[in-house]
């Protein structure tokens, strides 16, 4: 029990560190971008055709952009300490409201992608690992490497061309019905599955060649029983740990895929916030993603300890 | 009652025959033991019977178990025997048990899935209790001692109700106490069943009794009742094998009185803040051999390393200040680990000769004395046998004119005949050069026959 508390305490410290680093880095990067910030914000509010120097100056005065970056940053950090992420510079809405609004759509998409990738990746990996060196194993290596190597924007476009434009099976973009889920979720899932299939394959091949596997068979258990009772248990820890790390791939993918498919999620919003120099939105979004990563890994840690208690109690 | 008949079992790799046809019969309550060195084909014979031959090897002959016939050439068919009629004991139980499943569950699943018995948990608990493992049921294998893991694996292997037990090298690398545990377990397997044991361990073979088959180079050279084979062997190889058993070595003649080289008073060694063994004292003269005995992990090697000056110690340790600086040398347990893998043996010796400005002419007579062919020096360590490599390690130490040699289980990885030869050479050379030896081993009989005095370490 003590170790679980230690883990949680460690993760809380980590979360504080992540908040600080994400805040500073995203702020610095936004400041380092070229162009007049007030002009970009004004353009986002009123449209590129209407914007002029007067409007930009009005925005500058309204948002106090002359106050200098340090004051702005301290202002944001002060807000963060009160659990207030501030207001969007473009819409004037609280950042937290905007994020929660978009997060729902992103979570739906991410969840669909994860479920889909779990249905594809680990089963294929287990199958290849059980027959390591066989024809299927070698074929999977090539396929998985290809899918990992293709960037997600390209994969998304290929799927649009193939399934939406050529075969007219699915809508190319949009949000609302179940059919809209398929292409973006599949784009994300194929990349994730390619990676998790390889990890699962290596873990499975290792366990299948181990003395514990040979002994389980010698005890008289059938291949299926050995896999269910000993194989899955022993590949569990490395595979679950890796799924936690995949969250990074997922966030990266969500940003790209949402933009391609016009999905109204947090990744889509982040891209727009960057274009429009909406600093509090960028900081808030990056912060939510960073803390999400910490939370997810804390959960994964607890699950892995449950699967493999070695090193916890001795 | 006859449990298993194996007729003309042989093993081929393509057109090469690795094991010549062997027939054997397992009877209720009677042990059959296959004796031989590594490479004699004894394990292949067992694998052909079980249907677990590695890829590329084919078995042939006929196998009859309880009236049903099996074909060693089609090993897939043998699978139905596993657990149900033949229990296979794992060589290394610690690795064979699932580290992530609690002890009782690993036995209960066999009752449940293999024997389809009612109340598997109750049966598993009874199995564990019968073996004195009540406390192990809720533990994971990595929380058990080696002996407990061995008994747990035994219970799991036999829970499917198999009458025949097959054990391949069950005592490999075990110290004497653990070996007695294994013997007791195998005897238990004999009650109401048959037993086939593959081993190079004469003590184990003697304890099991029954019939013994002696294998050499893939052929059974001699077979018969254990009592006859072990006391009146006919074949020269069997005689060599039995003579190689440390219990049968000639008694050591005590050396003449010589000056003291190392004197220890109340010496002990600590590792990570923990004292390893109760303080010991001894006095070792030139030409003498001190045997150090004790269970694994009790600090035998650490004591030797402390004498060499490689580890800090507590107590008083006096080394003859007149001894040369390089006079304290060591032989390692695992010869391949004591040589760089990618440098030829001759190159390694040349480097040593250059470093210490040794006369190169000394190598040839030493090679001769150690019965080593000079051509071996052109090879890599992986290209010579374990016995040859250990003799080259001895040669390497002898080039430095040692007055003291710490031999850390130098023969535990060698076959019995090779072990006997290596130890004999080592003790002869030590006598010729008035060299003192500290010999560490987990084999009490071996130490008894090589040592002038014995030191038994006990945990603190």
UniProtKB/TrEMBL annotation, chain B:
Q: Which residues form the ABC transporter domain?
A: 4-242, 262-459
| SMART domains linked | AAA
Q: What keywords are annotated for this sequence in UniProt?
A: ATP-binding, Cell membrane, Membrane, Nucleotide-binding, Transport
Classification via PROSITE patterns = ABC_TRANSPORTER_1, ABC_TRANSPORTER_2
Main localization of the protein described in the UniProt heading = membrane
Stated family: Belongs to the ABC transporter superfamily.
Protein name as catalogued:
ABC transporter ATP-binding protein
In its UniProt entry, the species of origin is given as Pseudotabrizicola alkalilacus
Which taxonomic lineage does the organism of this UniProt entry have? Bacteria, Pseudomonadati, Pseudomonadota, Alphaproteobacteria, Rhodobacterales
């Amino acid at each position: 029990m003590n170790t679980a508390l230690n883990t949680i305490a460690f993760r809380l410290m980590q979360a504080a560190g992540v908040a600080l680093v994400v805040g500073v880095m995203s702020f610095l990067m936004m400041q380092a971008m070229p162009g007049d910030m007030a002009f970009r914000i004004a353009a986002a509010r009123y449209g590129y055709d209407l914007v002029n120097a007067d409007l930009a100056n009005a925005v500058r005065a309204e948002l106090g952009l002359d106050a200098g970056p340090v004051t702005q940053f301290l202002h944001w950090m002060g807000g963060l300490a009160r659990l207030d992420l501030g207001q969007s510079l473009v819409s004037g809405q609280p950042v937290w409201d905007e994020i929660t609004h978009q997060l729902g759509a992103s979570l739906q998409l991410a969840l669909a992608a994860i479920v889909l990738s779990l249905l594809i990746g680990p089963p294929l990996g287990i199958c290849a690992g059980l027959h390591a060196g066989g024809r299927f194993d070698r074929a999977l290596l090539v396929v998985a490497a290809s899918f990992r190597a293709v960037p997600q924007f390209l994969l998304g476009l290929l799927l649009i061309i193939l399934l939406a434009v050529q075969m007219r099976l699915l809508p190319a973009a949009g949000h609302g019905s179940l059919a809209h889920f398929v292409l973006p979720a599949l784009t994300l899932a194929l990349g994730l599955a390619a990676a998790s299939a390889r990890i699962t394959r290596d873990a499975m091949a290792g366990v299948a060649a181990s003395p514990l596997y040979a002994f389980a068979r010698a005890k008289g258990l059938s291949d299926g029983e050995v896999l269910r009772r000993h194989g899955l248990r022993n590949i569990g820890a490395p595979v679950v740990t890796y799924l936690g790390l995949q969250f990074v791939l997922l966030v990266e993918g969500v940003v790209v895929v949402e933009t391609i498919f016009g999905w109204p999620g947090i990744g889509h919003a982040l891209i727009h916030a960057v274009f429009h120099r909406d600093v509090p939105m960028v900081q808030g979004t990056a912060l939510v993603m960073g803390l999400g990563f910490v939370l997810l890994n804390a959960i994964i840690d607890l699950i892995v300890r449950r699967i493999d208690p070695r090193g916890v109690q001795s | 009652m006859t449990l298993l008949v194996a007729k003309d079992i042989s093993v081929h790799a393509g057109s090469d025959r690795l094991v010549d046809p062997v027939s054997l019969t397992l009877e209720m309550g009677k042990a059959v033991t296959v004796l031989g060195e590594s490479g004699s084909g004894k394990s292949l014979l067992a694998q052909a019977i079980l249907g677990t031959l590695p890829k590329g090897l084919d078995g042939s002959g006929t196998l009859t178990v309880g009236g049903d016939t099996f074909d060693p050439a089609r090993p897939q068919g043998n699978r139905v025997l596993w657990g149900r009629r033949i229990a296979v004991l794992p060589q290394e139980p610690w690795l064979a048990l699932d580290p992530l499943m609690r002890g009782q569950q690993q036995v209960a699943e066999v009752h449940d899935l293999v024997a389809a018995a009612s109340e598997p948990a109750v049966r598993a608990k009874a199995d564990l209790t019968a073996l004195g493992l009540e406390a192990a049921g809720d533990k994971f294998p990595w929380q058990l001692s080696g002996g407990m893991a061995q008994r747990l694996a035994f219970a799991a292997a036999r829970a499917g109700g198999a009458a025949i037990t097959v054990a391949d090298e069950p005592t490999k690398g075990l110290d004497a106490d653990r070996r007695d545990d294994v013997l007791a377990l195998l005897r238990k397997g004999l009650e109401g069943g048959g037993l086939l044991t593959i081993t190079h361990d004469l003590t184990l073979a003697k304890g099991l009794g029954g019939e013994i088959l002696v294998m050499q180079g893939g052929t059974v050279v001699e077979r018969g009742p254990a009592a006859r084979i072990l006391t009146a062997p006919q074949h020269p190889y069997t005689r060599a094998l039995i003579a190689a058993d440390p219990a049968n070595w000639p008694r050591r003649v005590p050396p003449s009185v010589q000056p003291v080289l190392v004197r220890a008073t109340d010496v002990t060694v600590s590792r990570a803040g923990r004292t390893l063994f109760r303080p010991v004292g001894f006095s070792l003269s030139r030409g003498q051999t001190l045997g150090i005995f004790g269970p694994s992990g009790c600090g035998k090697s650490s004591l030797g390393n402390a004498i060499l000056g490689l580890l800090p110690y507590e107590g008083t340790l006096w080394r003859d200040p007149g001894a040369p600086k390089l006079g304290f040398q060591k032989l390692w347990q695992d010869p391949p680990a004591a040589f760089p893998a990618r440098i030829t043996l001759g190159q390694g010796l040349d480097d040593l000769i250059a470093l210490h400005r040794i006369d190169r002419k000394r190598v040839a007579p030493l090679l001769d004395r150690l019965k080593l062919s000079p051509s071996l020096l052109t090879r890599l360590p992986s290209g010579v046998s374990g016995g040859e490599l250990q003799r080259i390690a001895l040669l390497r130490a002898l080039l430095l004119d040692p007055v003291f040699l710490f031999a850390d289980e130098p023969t535990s990885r060698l076959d019995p005949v090779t072990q006997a030869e290596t130890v004999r050479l080592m003790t002869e050379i030590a006598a010729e050069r008035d060299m003192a030896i500290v010999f560490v081993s987990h084999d009490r009989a071996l130490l008894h026959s090589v040592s002038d005095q014995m030191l038994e370490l006990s945990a603190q």
